[in-house]
């Protein structure tokens, strides 16, 4: 029957959109706090658990704990927003079997956040959709003095890389 597949997925899409709205509200509430009440790693774990409750999947996380302690609360909020948007985009558009998140220091002690998925990928140069997700990610990166790189191609998955200097010294 025509429309059967779309009708089958419509409740799931509505639930996904509701949960994404809940995650955004949660993170926006965190932005109002001036000092973190929990370690950044705990907040990252909570974000991942929340996103996995939206759509079960394999989301893994590797964090340099020493680097995480050097990130200011303002930087934490930007990183969380970038992660939330990136994971949300992957789950909504790419149908990945796995997403790997990494927060590590490079040789110059710069923070490198990587969000990589094995989904369907896309051509970043050809994106003219309704959303402003990638533009917003770039704005957030610039607001924290960082750079954002999006590497993707149809059939090749997507890797989003944020580079920035942590506020606190080592």
Kindly summarize this structure in a few lines.
It contains 5 helices and 5 strands; from the N terminus they run H-H-E-H-H-E-E-H-E-E. It is α+β, with helices and mostly antiparallel strands and 170 residues long.
Report on this model:
With 170 residues, the protein is an alpha+beta fold. It is 48% helix and 20% strand. The chain has five helices and five strands. The protein has helices spanning 4-31, 40-54, 65-69, 73-94, 133-143, and strands at 58-63, 98-105, 111-117, 147-152, 158-164. Strands 1-2-3-5-4 form a five-stranded mixed β-sheet. A hairpin with a 5-residue loop joins strand 4 and strand 5 (158-164). Helix 1 packs antiparallel against helix 2 (40-54). The radius of gyration is 16 Å and the shape is globular. The N and C termini lie far apart (62 Å).
Q: How is this fold's topology laid out?
A:
Elements: H1 4-31, H2 40-54, E1 58-63, H3 65-69, H4 73-94, E2 98-105, E3 111-117, H5 133-143, E4 147-152, E5 158-164
Parallel strand pairs: 1-2
Antiparallel strand pairs: 2-3, 3-5, 4-5
Shape: globular
The portion of residues forming beta strands comes to 15-25%
Q: If helices are DSSP runs of H or I spanning 4 or more residues, what is the number of helices?
A: 5
Rg for CA atoms: 16 Å
Main sheet record? 5 strands, mixed
Helix proportion of residues, in percent? 40-55%
Class inferred from helices and paired strands? alpha+beta
Q: Which regions are unreliable across 5 or more consecutive residues at pLDDT < 50?
A: none
């Amino acid at each position: 029957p025509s429309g059967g597949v779309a009708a089958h997925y419509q409740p799931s899409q509505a639930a996904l959109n509701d949960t994404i709205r809940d995650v955004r509200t949660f993170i926006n509430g965190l932005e109002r706090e001036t000092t973190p009440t929990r370690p950044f790693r705990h907040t990252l774990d909570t974000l991942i658990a929340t996103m996995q409750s939206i759509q079960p999947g394999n989301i893994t996380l590797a964090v340099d704990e020493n680097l995480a302690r050097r990130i200011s609360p303002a930087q934490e909020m930007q990183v969380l927003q970038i992660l939330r948007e990136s994971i949300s985009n992957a789950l909504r558009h790419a149908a990945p079997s796995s997403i790997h998140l990494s927060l590590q220091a490079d040789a110059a002690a710069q923070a490198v956040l990587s969000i990589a998925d094995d989904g369907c990928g896309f051509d970043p140069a050809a994106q003219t959709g309704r959303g402003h997700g990638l533009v917003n990610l770039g704005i957030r990166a610039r607001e924290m003095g960082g750079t954002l790189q999006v590497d993707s191609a149809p059939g090749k998955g997507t890797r989003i890389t944020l580079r920035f200097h942590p506020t606190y010294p080592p």
